[in-house]
């Protein structure tokens, strides 16, 4: 029975390519890739001449049936632009449908930016909550952070350079000035691993470039000291004095009380 191989590829440094991954990519009938330009560079480097087709977010509906047809008689390998396929990329759907069709799905492990960043972050790694790519829209990004605000597990997220500063400000507002590791260009020539607070990260990354993985400390719940009415009153007072949401929520949370998720909700309601 033919197999679908889920092949991990380097996230930057080509020396991280495994011998098994090279062998599998040479022996399969077809390679389906999220980004054929990046994968072609990889294949040329290792002298892999296997046929290559694109399989990305906007082509998956048209390519899925074709790949399943190939899998009736031959092996296929799935690769992403970098790292392990199926992690925040369209490979997930192919894996699900292949399994439903009785195709053997074989993992060929490789690097992952999320796991790599977590390992070097200096933050607890025994339990983590993966957020994937943070949403592009400000409101959706804040909503996702609010949903994760009470997680005690370490948070891991991907972010693009042109949205990094906005994302850090939203993290500061919703989650507070937590410890964070901002990992840039992991395994590449200009690799940088910044460790500090969210506020310090905002000051450090004035002109973000490259690919970013964020590792954020989880919530440290404390006992409340203020009633709901008292919190509402303080929020109104802070708003009248010109405090920003970030400043108000940070101050109230540091004093002990409601979760940042609840404080942020009350802040929004107080402005209506």
The portion of residues forming beta strands comes to 15-25%
Secondary-structure arrangement, i.e. CATH architecture of the largest domain: 3-Layer(aba) Sandwich
> Average pLDDT, to the nearest integer?
90
What do we call the CATH homologous superfamily of the largest domain?
Tetrapyrrole methylase, N-terminal domain
Q: Please write the CATH class name of the largest domain.
A: Alpha Beta
Q: How many helices in DSSP terms?
A: 11
CATH topology of the largest domain: Cobalt-precorrin-4 Transmethylase, domain 1
**Helical percentage:** 40-55%
Taking pLDDT < 50 over at least 5 consecutive residues as the criterion, the unreliable ranges are: none
Number of strands: 10
